[in-house]
Write a structure and sequence with these properties.
- It is a single chain.
- The chain has 343 residues and is of the alpha/beta class.
- The protein has 2 domains: 3-136, no CATH class; 174-342, 2-Layer Sandwich (Alpha-Beta Plaits), CATH 3.30.70.270.
- The chain has helices spanning 3-32, 36-55, 61-80, 84-99, 105-123, 130-166, 176-187, 205-212, 214-231, 239-245, 271-286, 316-332, and strands at residues 174-175, 195-202, 253-258, 261-267, 290-292, 295-297, 302-308, 338-342.
- Strand 5 (290-292) and strand 6 (295-297) form a beta hairpin.
- It starts with a helix and ends with a strand.
Length: 343
C-alpha cells in the first residue's frame, strides 16, 4: 500500500472511530429525552462507523457494499429526523469508503478532502454530538440545581415551622409548653441541685398600657425579654435547632407565659449567686428608656419569685406553682423585689 494511501487510511480510521464515539454520545441524550427512534439511528450509525474503520484494513466487497448501504440509509433517516450534520458526516464517510477503493490519485486526494469535511462535521462545535451532549448535561445540572434549591427551601421552611411552634412571636423567647417540656428534662437529671426556676412580672403593667398604649406595653415586654436573655445567658441564636440540641445539664431557658409574665430555668452555683444575678437584672431593666411617639417610659420594675430545686419534686409544674406564689408575695409587698425559696 502506498504511503500516501496508508496515511489516508489511518486518518479515515481515526475519523470513523471518533464519529462512532460522537454518534453514541448523541444517542444517549436522545434516548433519555424520550426519542427512541433517533437514539436507535445514532446507535446504528455508531455501529456502521466502527465497522467502516475495521473494513478499511480487512476489506471485503460484499461487506463494504452492505456497510455503504447502511450508511446511506442512516444518512436518509438522520435527514428525516432533522440531524443534517450527522447525516452529512455519514455521507462523507460513505464517499471516502468508495474513493479509497479506487487507485487513481485524484480519488485519494478527494478522499482526503472529504476526510477533512468528515472531521469538521463530527468535531464542529455545537453540532450533533456536542450540542445534544451539552444540552443533556445542562438539563441534568439544571435539575440538580433545582433539586438542591428545592431541598434547601424545604429545610428552611421546616426550620421556620419549628421556630413558630416553639417560640413567641412578640418577645422572641420560648413558648410555655416547650419550656415545660425542656425544664422537665432538666429536673430529671440525677443530682440536679444547681437549677433555679423563676417567674418574672412587670410591675404596674396595666397602667403602662392604659397611660401609654399597648404599643408601648409591647416594647416594654420586648425590652424585658432582651434583658432576661442577656443576664441569664440564654442562647437563642439558633432557635430552629435549640430544642433538638438542648442540654438539660447546662442550658438556660426562658419563656413568655403571656402578657408581661416570663418564666426561666437557669443553672447557678449558689442561691447567693442567683439572687445577685436577679438584682443585677432589676438594675439593668430600671435603666432602660423606651421612647415612642414623643412619649418616654423609664424606671421600669419587675417582681420575681425563684425556687431553688433540690432534686425532690417529680414535676416541673409543682416548681412553677411555688415560684408563682412567691412572685405574688412580692406583688403584695409593693413589687420591685426578688424572693427565693427552696423546693
Amino acid at each position: 500500500m502506498p504511503i500516501y494511501k496508508y496515511l489516508l487510511s489511518i486518518l479515515t480510521t481515526i475519523s470513523a472511530l471518533a464519529g462512532a464515539f460522537l454518534a453514541a454520545s448523541s444517542g444517549l441524550p436522545a434516548y433519555l429525552a424520550g426519542q427512541p427512534l433517533k437514539a436507535g439511528i445514532f446507535a446504528v450509525l455508531c455501529l456502521l462507523e466502527g465497522l467502516s474503520a475495521y473494513l478499511l484494513w480487512r476489506p471485503g466487497k460484499r461487506a463494504l457494499a452492505v456497510l455503504n448501504g447502511g450508511l446511506l440509509a442512516a444518512a436518509l433517516l438522520l435527514f428525516w429526523q432533522g440531524e443534517g450534520l450527522a447525516a452529512g458526516s455519514a455521507l462523507a464517510l460513505l464517499a471516502i469508503n468508495y474513493l479509497l477503493k479506487r487507485e487513481e490519485t485524484w480519488a485519494w486526494t478527494l478522499a482526503l478532502v472529504l476526510n477533512l469535511v468528515f472531521a469538521a462535521l463530527t468535531m464542529l462545535p455545537h453540532q450533533f454530538m456536542s450540542f445534544p451532549a451539552a444540552y443533556f448535561f445542562h438539563i441534568v445540572q439544571r435539575e440538580r440545581i433545582a433539586s438542591f434549591l428545592l431541598f434547601n427551601k424545604y429545610k428552611e421552611n421546616q426550620r421556620e415551622l419549628r421556630v413558630q411552634a416553639n417560640f413567641d412571636h412578640l418577645s422572641g423567647v420560648m413558648l410555655r409548653s416547650t419550656f415545660m417540656d425542656l425544664s422537665q428534662k432538666a429536673i430529671e437529671q440525677p443530682e440536679c441541685t444547681d437549677l433555679f426556676i423563676g417567674l418574672v412580672d412587670i410591675d404596674y403593667f396595666k397602667q403602662i398600657n392604659d397611660n401609654y398604649g399597648h404599643r408601648m406595653g409591647d416594647l416594654a415586654i420586648q425590652r424585658l425579654s432582651q434583658c432576661l436573655e442577656k443576664e441569664l445567658k440564654v442562647d437563642y441564636r439558633d432557635r430552629a435547632d435549640f430544642v433538638e440540641k438542648f442540654d438539660p445539664a447546662k442550658d438556660n431557658v426562658l419563656a413568655r407565659l403571656g402578657g408581661d409574665e416570663f418564666v426561666f430555668a437557669c443553672h447557678c452555683p449558689s442561691e447567693a449567686a442567683c439572687l445577685e444575678k436577679m438584682r443585677d437584672l432589676q438594675a439593668a431593666f430600671a435603666k432602660e428608656k423606651i421612647a415612642l411617639d414623643g412619649q418616654r417610659l423609664s424606671q421600669l420594675r419587675f417582681s420575681c419569685g425563684v425556687i431553688h430545686y433540690l432534686n425532690n419534686l417529680p414535676n416541673v409544674d409543682q416548681l412553677y406553682q411555688r415560684a408563682d406564689q412567691l412572685m405574688y408575695e412580692v406583688k403584695k409587698q409593693g413589687g420591685g423585689n426578688v424572693l427565693l425559696a427552696r423546693s
